[in-house]
Amino acid sequence: MPVKPYKVARRDYEYKRCGTANVFCGIEPKAGVHFTKVTPTRSSPEFADFILEIAAHYSAADTIHLVVDNLSTHTRKALTHHFGEEIGGWLWNRFTVHYTPTHGSWLNQAEIEISLFGRQCLGRRRIGDIGQLRRQTKAWNRRTNRDRITIQWKFTRKQARRKLNYSITRS
Fold first, then answer.
1. Three-state DSSP class for 25?
2. CA distance 118 to 153
3. Which long-range contacts (CB under 8 A, 24 or more apart) does 12-19 make?
């Protein structure tokens, strides 16, 4: 910006935005099993495919506990629209879904996983294309799963109930 009386010349910062991408992140925190999936957007069909990958990994499990935030795509409808009512419903029913409280993302260990991914895989650099992002993500995922990087969660159920002003009454 040009110099004006009593004003110093200034420069504005510009960058070229080459697009965005989404990375679904999941974790089995105590076992150190990490799931990542790079997608162009975070649409319902892409979420459904991510859920299918998790279910395939735990094919012998009767039920899989899934903690998700309240994003509009994190629903049964996402699976039934993508896979059809019968298969999508069956797949959704394999999960016991727990939604994090509104304004409670600090309870979500997936947020910790996203932070780990951001710091360890992406760092402060910009990745130029989705193919390169997929390669970097796959390498990070292999490394963290090989090393069984766990999350040491120290927040107890009792502390959560106290923090959320939630109590159980027994009759």
1. strand
2. 19
3. 18/126, 18/128, 18/129, 19/130
Residue with tokens 């099993």: 33
Q: Which residues of 22-41 are buried (b: 16+ CB within 10 A; e: fewer)?
A: bbbbbbbbeeebbbbbbbee
Collapsing DSSP states into helix, strand and coil, what is residue 6?
Answer: coil
What letter would DSSP give residue 106? G
DSSP three-state, residue 146 = helix
Nearest to 98 by CA among 60, 57, 73, 70: 70
User: Could you read off the pLDDT of 114-157 as tens digits, one per residue?
Assistant: 888 899 988 888 888 899 999 999 999 999 999 998 887 777 77
Instruction: Tell if the pTM clears 0.90, that is, is over it.
Output: no
Q: Of 21, 1, 29, nearest to 129 (Cα)?
A: 21
Q: Give residue-wise pLDDT tens across range 50-100.
A: 999 999 999 999 999 998 888 899 999 999 999 999 999 999 999 999 888
